Amino acid sequence: MKALLLGYIVLAFSIPLAGLAHTSVENRQPIGPVILKVGGDIDKPNNADEVHFDRQMLQQLPQHGFETSTPWTEGSSHYEGPLMRDLLACVGVEEGSVNVLALNGYEAEIPVSDFYDYDVILALKRDGNAIPIREYGPLWVLYPFDQDAALLSEKMRFRAVWQVMQINAL
Fold this sequence. Notes:
Elements: H1 2-23, E1 34-40, E2 51-54, H2 55-60, E3 63-69, E4 76-82, H3 84-89, E5 97-102, E6 107-111, H4 113-117, E7 121-123, E8 125-126, E9 129-130, E10 140-142, H5 154-157, E11 164-169
Parallel strand pairs: 1-11
Antiparallel strand pairs: 1-2, 3-4, 4-8, 5-6, 5-11, 7-10, 8-9
Signal peptide: 1-23
Domain Oxidoreductase molybdopterin-binding: 68-144
InterPro entries: OxRdtase_Mopterin-bd_dom (IPR000572), OxRdtase_Mopterin-bd_sf (IPR036374)
C-alpha cells in the first residue's frame, strides 16, 4: 500500500514538472551557468524582470533541427535547438520585435514575425555537438538558409546573430 501511495505522489508531482519544460520557465531556476538572458517586455520572468536560462533549460524546450549551409561556414551542417517562436512563447512574447545581443557587442533587431514565417532556431548544437564560442556558439539565431533563397539576402543574414548572450523583447 505504501509503494502504491508513493508511486501516486511521484506521478502527481512529475506531471506538472514535465509540462513546465515545454511551456513555462517562470518557476524554474537555472542549475548550471546562465548562458542566455531574456528580458524586456516579457510576461514570465524567473529572475527579477528577466528569464535566465542554462543549457539544460534550453535543451528541455522542444528541439528542432535542420541541415543548412551558412554564409560563414564551409559546407553544410545539421543544427539543433529550440525554435525561436517556442523560446519566446515560453516567456510570453508572440509579437513585436526582439533585440538580440552577442558576446562581441553585435546586436540586431529581428521582427518576431520572422520566427513564424521561417523555422528559425536558437542553435545549441552543430552536427550533434555543442557549438564552441570560437565557432559561432554557444548560441546562434540561425535561419534555414538552404530552404528559401529569400533568406540569403543581406537583411536576413544580419539577423542571424551568433554568440548570443541576451534577447530583449521590444
